[in-house]
Design brief:
With 321 residues, this protein is of the alpha/beta class. Helices cover 37% and strands 16% of the residues. It is built from 14 helices and 10 strands. Helix 1 packs across helix 14. It is globular. It binds beta-D-ribofuranose and calcium ion (CA).
């Protein structure tokens, strides 16, 4: 096991979450201190079971897993099994698996923050329920850690769940709103992740490799109908893998903005309001010479180095060969 930058992963293990787990567990100089699970792509029972199965498959049952929220703060849970498969994850998964730890995700996250402080980076790639709960329980959390990365939102592009909202933000908009306002995160949204595909040759090579890569290959092979509409290909975008690639090898460029998430019901639920032109002011509707702009709430990923992203995926995934 490598010792390096300490990372806690918060996941709703579907296919791209599983790819992220495989990448982070293989990366040099990354030490995954634990994984917390949340309802998202499927039920909490399924996303937790999928996470444990991935650890079993990759022979990394030493990594602790803590179960988190069963549903969003306010809304009902709504999964994405139609994308990720009946149980939320494709492939022939092994059993029996280890068990989760007794702590809840919120307790586990807060404990890891207390233990590692500024050495810890948190990467959250599902609905943000666990992270918002942890911040509510420990208000100093954002200032205590190194970085908070999240996969979610669409700042300058359209959504993948509604015309304006991305799945993780739409799933728990109240949590997304709190984390975006209070967490000073690095938001890795559809603006960059929609471009994050791998080449068909890469998937062919994985399919021809030995276990566990034959199972991993199936995670790269889920249907992405929205990609077909937008890019004329069903090769899926590896959304959550982008967070991993950036932590491992800086593939993203960011800008800082003031950002809000829409928590109303109706067609704009979960939409990101990103103040690109700095036109939002502390006193709404007051136009004055001495304008008082709202300060940035975090960073938004603006562009991705796709070649570098593919190199990192290839290096980490083929290390299991
Ligand atoms: C996000 O939604 C989920 O289906 C994926 O795992 C990813 O985290 C993309 O919108
Ligand atoms: Ca996810």
């Amino acid at each position: 096991m490598t010792m390096g930058r300490k990372i806690l992963l918060d996941v709703d293990t579907g296919n791209d979450d599983a790819i992220l787990l495989a990448m982070m567990l293989a990366a040099e100089d990354i030490d995954v201190v634990g994984i917390t699970t949340v309802a998202g792509n499927s039920t909490l029972t399924n996303t937790t079971q999928n996470t444990l199965s991935v650890l079993e498959l990759l022979d990394r049952t030493d990594v602790p897993v803590a179960k988190g929220a069963e549903r969003p703060f306010v809304r009902d849970h709504c999964g994405a099994e139609w994308v990720h498969g009946e149980n939320g994850l494709r492939g022939d998964l092994p059993g029996p698996t280890p068990s989760p730890v007794d702590q809840t995700a919120m307790e586990f996250i807060c404990e890891q923050v207390a233990t590692h402080g500024t050495d810890l980076t948190i990467a959250a790639v599902g609905p943000l329920t666990n992270i918002a709960l942890a911040i509510a329980n420990r208000l100093t959390l954002p200032d205590e850690i190194d970085e908070l990365y999240l996969m979610g939102g669409a700042a300058h592009t359209h959504g993948n769940t509604t015309p304006v909202a991305e799945f993780n933000f739409w799933g728990d908009p109240e949590a997304a709103s709190r984390v975006m306002q209070d967490g000073f995160p690095r938001m890795v949204g559809l603006d960059v992740t929609n471009q994050a595909t791998v080449l068909p040759e890469f998937v062919d090579k994985l399919e021809d490799a030995a276990p566990p890569l034959t199972t991993v290959a199936q995670w790269f092979d889920y249907p992405d109908e929205l990609m077909k509409v937008e890019y004329g290909t069903t090769v899926p975008a590896i959304h959550d893998g982008v967070v991993g690639a950036d932590i491992i090898g800086n593939v993203l460029e960011y800008e800082s903005y003031y950002v809000e998430v829409d928590t109303t019901d109706g067609p704009s639920r979960g939409a990101v309001i990103c103040d690109v032109l700095e036109i939002m002011e502390t006193e709404v509707n007051v136009v004055s010479e001495d304008r008082n702009h709202l300060s940035p709430t975090g960073y938004v990923a603006e562009s991705i180095d796709i070649d570098h992203f593919r190199e990192i995926i290839s290096e980490t995934i083929f290390s299991y060969n």
